[in-house]
Amino acid sequence: xxxxxxxxxxxxxxxxxxxxxxxxxxxxxxxxxxxxxxxxxxxxxxxxxxxxxxxxxxxxxxxxxxxxxxxxxxxxxxxxxxxxxxxxxxxxxxxxxxxxxxxxxxxxxxxxxxxxxxxxxxxxxxxxxxxxxxxxxxxxxxxxxxxxxxxxxx
Length: 154
Hints:
The protein is mainly alpha-helical. The chain has one domain (3-153). The protein has 5 helices and no strands.
């Protein structure tokens, strides 16, 4: 093989290598850019999920605080230190911080007024909370009597 043919073949091999590398690099570059964009989207999704998680944790903490407060109110009701009327007002204040709960009560007790709904909620919460306690029957009877008395006043 003479030098001119070898030189032409070498140039052809180099050109084919450069073209192949260029094609491969173009696909690699496109894939790399696409992956970077997907990584950015994934990072944004993670940030959004972290934010949502923090919101949910705050809601859980607020719910636990409301439940703890309601249990303390039930204990005061059971001990006779609190009337149904006063407990109803305190429950309403707790519900004001969670509008969805008011909607739930409206669905559970659709034919009752707002005050009656909350009073029924107090009694039902007492019933559940006092389950297994010896004073349960007596406390619930007293609350039902107070509820009836409140109904007559309205």
